[in-house]
Amino acid sequence: MAHYENNTLSSAFKTFFERETLTGPNFNEWYRSLRIVLRVADTFDYLYKPCPDQPADTATEAEKAAFRAEYKKHSDPPAVEIYDMVDALHSCRQAPGKPVSEHVLEMKGLMDQLHTLGKPYENDMAVNLINMSLKDFGDFVRNFNIHCVGKTVTELHALLIDFEKGLKDKAP
Questions:
Q1: Predicted local confidence at residue 6, as pLDDT
Q2: Could you give the C-alpha distances from 165 to 17, 31, 42, 131, 159, in angstroms and in order?
């Protein structure tokens, strides 16, 4: 039987805890974000249900198989990967001077990676995230929200490119 590391050391969140310093001001925000991500990943019970202890050598094969399955769930690296992508997606903002096409493609790439991991965003959520991340497109977003309900991310991308061209043409 393979040797399994201590539950604390093999936690899927080990690298996150090593990288992030949790202090009073950011702990509540971190904990809220963690709960949201774990709910999306259907792993919310990990906060409250510890990984089971390794079965003894005298355990039945069924108990050993159950332990391996539960252990794999608790040490599944995509959970950390999903958290990092969701965090990057929600904190993504258009940089000053960055073309809107590059920005939308960057966000769409993150959404495609999440889709590959089995956690796709619904179209309306994806469109709203992109619209909220835009800088200097307030008029476009208002008009879009009134007249363009139900558009896909690709259609939004094309409309944004056209709108940006119009802004450049109007610039002195």
A1: 38
A2: 44, 42, 42, 17, 10
The yes-or-no verdict on residue 72 having pLDDT over 80 is no
**Residue 52: DSSP 8-state:** P
The DSSP call for residue 136 is: S
CA angle, corner 60, sides to 57 and 61, nearest 5? 100
Non-local (6+) Cβ contacts of 88 within 8 A are: 110
Of residues 56, 33, 43, the one with CA closest to residue 11: 43
Percent helix, strand and coil across the chain, each to the nearest 5 = 65, 0, 35
CB–CB of 102/130 below 8 Å?
no
CB 140 within 8 A of CB 122: no
Count of residues in the chain = 172
Left (φ > 0), alpha (ψ -120 to 50) or beta: where does 121 sit? beta
Asked if 1 and 64 touch (Cβ cutoff 8 Å), the reply is: yes
Tell me the whole-structure pTM to 2 decimals. Answer: 0.54
Identify the sign of the CA torsion 144, 150, 153, 158: negative
